[in-house]
Amino acid sequence: MKAKYRFALAVIVLGLLMTGPFVVTSLLVWLEMKEAERNMLTDLLLSRLPVGTIMTLFGFVIGVAVLHKLFKQYVEGLLRMAETLRMMLSANRNFRVTPDGPPEVQQLARAANDLAQQRDMLMDDVDAQISKAKASVEEEKNRLAALMSELAQAVVVCNLDGRILLYNNRARLQFKALAQGPTSVSGGALIGLGRSIFSILEKNQVQHAQEVITQRLSAGKTAISNFITTTRGGQLLRAQMVPVLSAAGDETKAMSGYVLTVENITRSMEQEAKRDQALHSMTEGSRSSLGSIRAAITNLIDYPDMEAELRERFVRVVDDEAARMSQRLDQTMAEFSDSMKTRWPLEDILGIDVIAAAQRRIEDKLKLPIKTEELDDTLWVKADSFSLVFALVFLAAKLQDHYEPRELRCRLSSEGKLAYLDLIWAGAAMSSETFYTWEMETMQVDGESSPLSLRDVIDRHGGEIWYQREKAAHRAFFRFVLPVATPELAPEQDERTRSANRPEYYDFDLFNFADKSIDLDRKLSDLTYTVFDTETTGLEPSKGDEIIQIGAVRVVNNRLLRQEVFNQLVDPECPLKPESIPIHGISEDMVRGQPNIDIVLPAFHEFCEDTVLIAHNAAFDMRFLQLKESRTNIRFTQPVLDTLLLSAVIHPNQESHKLDVILERLGIEIGGRHNALEDALATAAVFLKMIPLLEEQGIITVRQALEASEKTYFARIKY
Asked: Is 605 tagged catalytic?
């Protein structure tokens, strides 16, 4: 029986105890009295009835107050203590009972805290022993995860159902670049733990590759399969599949999953097509011209005495066809040169490494001494090191041929986001026309040539080059202006998105997971969740307030995946309320120019597809989404769990269910708050703590959690 019903029953019993004996006694006396005595008693009672009633009611009120005080101190106090003890046992071992209430209850609270302290000491000892035993296994696990993370090739591991169990950083970046749908708005990717590889690769081709591997395994051959597929955005991918074999003891091990190495070959295929086209143009296109030239020359040789007019006609044929061949050759080489410009990708490289490579090449090929000065050895540039070094050697060769410097010097510095690489020499001044000629001619050095000019190399790097004199030092220099490298993975170094020990984008336990569909009768711990939060212009969605940020994070296999997040500012297309800005810290300048809700909502819908939604005070956030259904034609039909309601289910006797209070109650420490993504991360951590607490109350499935939530008082709140 609930506490409020027990209190009502106690009040009824108190009323009966106060009025029952008097009523029974009066009834017995009434029955034994004569008529005259009854009349006399009636007159007496009626004259005293107001006073008696007031005294009775006063006594009843005092009794109820005393009963309520005792009930609060003993019954509700003990119930809160019981909830706290359960939290200490399961959710937050550092939580302690506050000794308040009557002395007896305080003594019980102190005793419980002492027992908890002793238990913590024992658990610390056990944890230390377990950590020691697991250290070797964890080390091997970390090595594997770190190795997979840093591989230069995109690697994805899937189970037989195509669910992703592991993906390395290169795969995440590659598929992020391939994203052509709405997910790309938020910087999201097509890849994620528990997601299907078939959203990226063609399902039939992957399954055919599985069949090929199965046949090769049964035949005792090397189990490997290669295939080429296209993405939704039209990109061409080359994939190689190898099996992951089960740990069965027999010789014929079964395939439990597979490893895919994926390479984007779109650009290389385009370049191959250009080269094939160039070759075809130079061969087939020149065949007819060569035939005409051969026929004309044959006639000239066979008929040396032909008329001058006819001879002139044959000579003109040779000249015209030769000119056409020359023009076709020049055009083909120009096209081939353009394709060569994109042959080498720009990569992050230390500036001093470029200078060291150029220094070795210049000394080896030109026998020209070269020294360095004022080098910034921490400066990274984004460059194609091959073509950049070749350009430096080319300029050094030109200087040696025309000005014969005794030595060269290199200097490396930076200013803001630009890097300055200087090639310095002492000698006579050169003209701007000479420098322009060097800049535009095709580069050649000691028998080596490149289809690129110096200007091509500079344009390829998105930089600039100029010639400048140092009159005071009687020196001159060529200055290469290059972009300073911004490390591609810098955002991943954020403490919020990086694990201290190992990458977070793998979970080998998912090998045993098959069906990931939303089933209300599945265990809470078996489903995939999207935990989200919104920041808005105000608290009244029905009166025109708008979303200005959506943040979300995925929970898979009872793990919070901090690297698989959705975080997008939204232009509300209306002014922000000044009183809301200090709360969420989002200003007008931050949202202006951001995509509006028509673009962001489809992206968020794709991110949380086939998952259960979770939010704190979900009715508020869902109301904003529902009001946009007619405008965006996007509907969120999946189940929605609310951590506010679940907290009221787990701890019905606690006074507050605010997110900050729940975090403290469950012993969860987080950083910033009132940012949509940070609040989503906090809510996800709360939900993971709640799952075992719900199971203790017999709430195992999503359906049971929804039904229990609907019975709480907070479920009646509407927005």
From this structure: no
